[in-house]
Amino acid sequence: MKALKTLAAATLGAFVLAGPALAQAQQPVKVGVIFPLSGGAGPQGQHVTQAIQAMASIINESGGVMGRQIEILSRDDESTPAVGVSRANELISEGVSVIIEGWNSPVTLAMQPVINRAGILDITAISKADPILSGEGNPLAVRLNSSNSQDGAVIAKYIADRKAKKIAFLTENDAYGNGAQESIEAELKKINYEYEKVAEEKFPFSQADFRVALTNVRAANPDITVAINANEGLGMPALIRQAKQSRLPGQLVTAVGTVAPSVISVAGEAANGVVGADIYFPDVEPFASNEMNKKFVAKTKEMFDYTPDKYMALGAAALQVWAMAANELKTLDKEPIAKRIRGGTFDGTIFGKMQFGPNGQLMSDHKLFTIEDQKIVVRSASN
């Protein structure tokens, strides 16, 4: 009898000790998501957040992360650095294991040191400014969207191939826009291409009236005008419409990744003839036959009745890669996961095989496109 009592007490003690571990195993893994959910970029930020939720659903249906379900906690950065920092602090206090962020580069750059000091992995999905990877704000930075320098090479090659000599720039006046223009010009210099910059107009992210700037550019009679505008909800559609109305001469070329289907929908027929480049198209090979991409597209349509664009795919892939690394390493700790991603390769993702550089930058394959009948038509690979 005494032996039975001792065994019962030991068993009870084991359950008491195991209780916290079992409770933790059953608790969801919290993933923080910070994008603009209001204002000019609000619709795009909402779509990226929804895509991340769709990917969370796919991962949860396959067992989650280390046997635990993913819970998405989303916040609106309002495209404002100070607000982004506040939202990051909110998520840190909520105990998130990772934060996926980044539509506007200035917001990302403001949040990076805050998230880094908290010891939480920070994955940038969209923001493109080069200091995001090269600055001191986040020594273990990871970014999925192509960098300004990668994009600059694509646009520079297009300009050189077209033998355009008179180039104008309509540039968003912030870390992203100025960095994008500098990269294009640096790449043109690298290939020893001679050209004349006949006009340069700068504008804030929130601007929607470009008539004066376009009048100045039109007077310069450029062969190509490069439009660099990350405000896809308001600014870029307005710029495209007003460029058409002003009868802008030459070819309007948009910076890489700034023309999504939502932009074309708002710009309407004025978008026809615009040239751009990007790294993801849901219905074009090699994505159309990619089983994981097909599953992601189907889940996004099922949950939100929307076909995902490049930004949505980048947000979802950020969560997918993080979850793959966490499951492989059996940890949620920032440092080992960051080191697994940086310089690492992942198979079976939305993008197929994803390879990251040692600095945390996803290596991307750009494709040029034109807009015809308000649809994106892929023309050729950029290299």
Report on this model:
The protein is of the alpha/beta class and 383 residues long. It is 46% helix and 19% strand. The chain contains 13 helices and 14 strands. Helix 2 packs parallel to helix 12, helix 3 (81-94) packs parallel to helix 4 and helix 9 crosses helix 10 (261-267).
Provide a quick synopsis of the model.
The chain has 383 residues and is an alpha/beta fold. The protein has helices at residues 2-26, 42-61, 81-94, 105-117, 131-134, 148-161, 175-190, 211-220, 235-245, 261-267, 291-304, 310-329, 334-341, and strands at residues 29-35, 70-76, 98-101, 121-124, 142-143, 166-172, 196-203, 224-228, 251-254, 275-278, 345-349, 352-355, 367-372, 375-381.
The helix-strand sequence is HEHEHEHEHEHEHEHEHEHEHHHEEEE
Radius of gyration: 23 Å
CATH-defined architecture of the largest domain: 3-Layer(aba) Sandwich
Which geometry do the CA atoms define?
Answer: globular
Low-pLDDT regions: none
How confident overall, as mean pLDDT? 92
Beta-strand content? 15-25%
Count every helix, treating DSSP H or I runs of 4 or more residues as helices: 13
CATH homologous superfamily designation of the largest domain: Response regulator
Termini Cα gap: 80 Å
Number of extended strands:
14
Q: Give the tally of structural domains.
A: 2
Q: Under CATH, the topology of the largest domain is which?
A: Rossmann fold
What structural category arises from helix and sheet content?
A: alpha/beta
Considering DSSP H and I runs of 4 or more, what fraction of the residues is helical?
40-55%
| Major β-sheet annotation | 5 strands, parallel
Strand order, main sheet: write it out.
2-1-3-4-5
CATH class of the largest domain: Alpha Beta
